Amino acid sequence: MGEIKRFIRDDGIIKVSRNVKETAKKVKHAKEKLSKQYGREVTVEEIANELCITSEDVVMSLDSLNAPEYLYETIHQ
Amino acid sequence: MFKNEMKIEFPSKSQNEAFARVVVAAFASQLDPTIEELSDVKTAVSEAVTNAIIHGYENSSGKIEIECKIEGRTLTVIVTDYGKGIEDVELAKQPLYTSRPELERSGMGFTVMETFMDSLEVESEPLKGTRVKMTKEFKSF
Amino acid sequence: MFKNEMKIEFPSKSQNEAFARVVVAAFASQLDPTIEELSDVKTAVSEAVTNAIIHGYENSSGKIEIECKIEGRTLTVIVTDYGKGIEDVELAKQPLYTSRPELERSGMGFTVMETFMDSLEVESEPLKGTRVKMTKEFKSF
Ligand SMILES: Nc1ncnc2c1ncn2[C@@H]1O[C@H](COP(=O)(O)OP(=O)(O)O)[C@@H](O)[C@H]1O
Ligand SMILES: Nc1ncnc2c1ncn2[C@@H]1O[C@H](COP(=O)(O)OP(=O)(O)O)[C@@H](O)[C@H]1O
Ligand SMILES: [Mg+2]
Ligand SMILES: [Mg+2]
Question: What is its EC class (chains B, C) (predicted)?
Answer without folding.
Answer: transferase
